[in-house]
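G., the chain you wanted modeled:
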Amino acid sequence: MIVLHYTGMQDAASAIAQLANPEAKVSAHYVVTEDGQIIRMVAEDKRAWHAGRSHWRGVTDINSASIGIEIVNPGHEFGYRPFPDEQIDALIPLVAEIMATYHITRGNVVGHSDIAPARKRDPGELFPWGRLARHRLALPRPTRNLMDPNWSDAGFLLALERFGYEVTDPMAAVVAFQRRFRPELIDGEIDGETRSILLALLLPKPQGDD
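Predicted structure as tokens:
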């Protein structure tokens, strides 16, 4: 898997210092700065401590099965802002190379909030997942031929769990799904559009405008 994070600190230097500090007990394989520099922090064949308590598609020890990439951004706590083009331009080939090396599928390129919905919000609703999807480096947001399956709320949560999310905190799981696939409206409501997007993602070939 590849797990994308934002650093959530006031500047890049603070984030890098924290990730390099053994006493902090947090680390990642790469840091991507806002001007597009890529800093390798941990060798890819080593475990980094970036995922924490998390779950995705039945995997709970995600640190043992993933490459963690920290993207410099102050995050929701310190003035969340859009990710610069130079940063994403550097991230795209990095993700592409890691995916090719380890045969990672698009469905296993995720955000921290996808694997820990009750605890995390990063990389957040401003992250340009569509740019990665256009390069087949992430799942696209489905936009074509959407159809509401009219699931009950329990049925939706069952489908969401099948897709990959931990649903023990239902509201958090719905919010995390919307943050990723409908970022313009993150209200935790299981509405027709949210159901339609999930149904489309469960089909063999998700159709998006990417």
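DSSP finds eight helices and five strands in the chain.

Shout if anything looks off.
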